Structure formats: C-alpha cells, structure tokens
Amino acid sequence: MSSRIEQLIDEIEEYIDNCKPKFMSNTDIIVNKEEMDELLRELRMKTPDEIKRYQKIISNKEAILQDARDKAQALIDEATVHTNELINEHEIMQQAYAQANEVVTMASAQAHEILDNATIEANEMRSAAMQYMDDMLAHLEKVITASTQSATSNYENLVGSLNQYRDIIISNRQELHPVEDLETVNLDDDGDDSMEDLT
Known about the structure:
The chain is mostly helical and 199 residues long. Helix content is 85%, strand content 0%.
C-alpha cells in the first residue's frame, strides 16, 4: 500500500501532465497556482507523519534485539536446568559435567547466532527504511524543481510575448500616423504607459 506522500507526488505529476499547453508551445504549460499550492501544502503536512512512520520502523530494531536476547536467555536457562539435573545423578557425575558443558556451549553458540542474525536483520530494515525515505524525498525534490522551473519559464515567455505584441502595435501605429503626428498621438494615448510597465 502506497503512502500518502507517494499518492500526493503522483497527483502532482498527474496534475502537471493534465495541464493545458501554452498557446503554440510543446513544452510550456498553464498551471493553476491555487491547485498547485494546495497539493504542495498537503504534501508539507504529510511529510512529518511519514518520517515518524519510518522512524518507528527503525525503532523496531531494539524490539528484534530484545526478542533475540529473551530467546538466548531461555536457551541458557534450559541448559542450566538440564545441567543441574545431570549433576544430581551421582553415578554419572563425570558424564553429567561433560554433557552439561557441551549443552551450555551449544546454547551459547545458538544465542550468539540469534543475536547476530537479529542485529543484521535490524540493520537491514533500518537501511532499507532510510533509503526508501531518501529516494522518496529526492523524487519530491525533482517534482518541485521541475514545477518551479516551469513556472519561471512561463512567466518569462509571457513577458517576452507581451513585449513582442507591444512592438507590433507601435510599428502599426507608426504606419497609421505620419512621423510628425506620432508625438501628438503618444501624448494623447493614456493606455500606452501600461504596456511600458511590463518591461
């Protein structure tokens, strides 16, 4: 089951894929700022919860180690009981000591093996959880970087297009009016200043 952060990243990618392309452009898109902000806002809210979730997975390492310690101690206790039973038999005292030592040695070896395996498993879980979080955050970084670059490119293209239209309008007006009358027309036209503000 995917996490909410993964779902949000998928939603952002799907939203970007479904955005309308800019007029006469194969790469630029039109982004609704409010919708994008809402997706990013929810992403910021969910990220701490996901991090806590993976911290909980990492913390299970101690539970695994404690379980291994308990199993190891149970083996040693069982071996000790068995040793005491053997020692209590007078006729086979020497044999009991030998068997007891062998049982204790085997129990200790099994206990060490359990602890070693539990430590390896816990470290692998921790590494996997950290790698997963790092991969997810790296993917999120790429999505946000792409969105930022797209928004910046859209704005620059918009300003460039408006400046081109303004130049065309000025050229058309120059064709409509003689050179000596253009200055008078500029003084009477209040709308021209608003185009100048775009540059």
